[in-house]
Amino acid sequence: MKALLSFILAAVFFTQTADAQKIFSTRNGKISFTSPADGEVKAVNNEVTSRIADNGQVTFSLLVKGFRFQLAEMQEHFNDQYLESNKYPRADFKGNIVNLKDVNFAKDGSYKATVKGDLTLHGVTKSITANGTVEIKAGKPVVSCKFNVTLKDFNVSTSGVGQTIAVDVSCQYQ
Predict the structure, then answer these.
(1) DSSP 3-state of 98
(2) In this structure, what DSSP letter does residue 138 have?
(3) Helix (H) and strand (E) counts for the chain?
(4) What UniProt keywords apply to this chain's record, in alphabetical order (predicted)?
(5) Radius of gyration of the chain (CA)
(6) Using CA atoms, how far apart are residues 55 and 52, in angstroms rounded to an integer?
(7) Which phi and psi (to 5°) does residue 50 adopt?
(8) Which residues pair with residue 16 across a beta bridge?
(9) DSSP one-letter code for 128
(10) Would you call 18 helix, strand, or coil by DSSP?
(11) Which of 26, 81, 110, 171 has the most other CB atoms within 10 Å of its CB?
């Protein structure tokens, strides 16, 4: 009886271990943006929290006030007039790698990835799709991605700034 119980427990343990997903994370990911209409409008946030799992789940979260501009006046306008960061303090993304079969988290290499999910910005959530790269280095993912965001889609007033921003994401995971 003890042998049977031990066998069952071992089988359950090894089955759960084999199916367990591996999750990588960072607290110092980088997201930057530039206005194609005005190259002077650009900022970077180096305090992005992100997770990526080998089952394809991807999340990003950041404080809007974490974006740093070259000029303090731009940063003030960004937080007060455009993104209203006191009212909408966070931006979040939750999605999945849609071509997961093309990404091998167990083998070093560079893999093209398409991510689809929901971006929440300025209190509005919209579905987005973006293409990027997942590079596995020494068993750890490094993700890079570029995409455009149309500000009016997120109810952001764009007077004097342009309608679209180019977003650049870069994260090294542990």
Answers:
(1) coil
(2) T
(3) 2, 9
(4) Signal
(5) 20
(6) 8
(7) -145, 150
(8) none
(9) E
(10) helix
(11) 171
Say what percent of the chain tops pLDDT 70.
87
H helix intervals, 20-137: 72-77
Residue matched to tokens 């007060």: 80
* CATH number, domain with residue 149: 2.40.128.110
Report yes or no: 91 and 128 within 8 Å, Cβ to Cβ. Answer: no
- Provide the whole-model pTM: 0.86
Tell me the three state secondary structure of residue 67: coil
Structural domain harbouring 134 = 23-172
Contact between residue 150 and residue 166 where contact means Cβ atoms under 8 Å apart = no
pLDDT band at 127; cut points 50, 70, 90: very high
Nearest to 109 by CA among 148, 67, 140: 140
- 16 assigned to some structural domain: no
CA-angle at 169, arms to 29 and 94, nearest 5°: 80
In a domain, 10, yes or no: no
- Collapse the DSSP code of 19 into the 3-class scheme (helix H, G, I; strand E, B; otherwise coil) and give the result: helix
DSSP state of 139: T
Residue 91 lies in a domain: yes
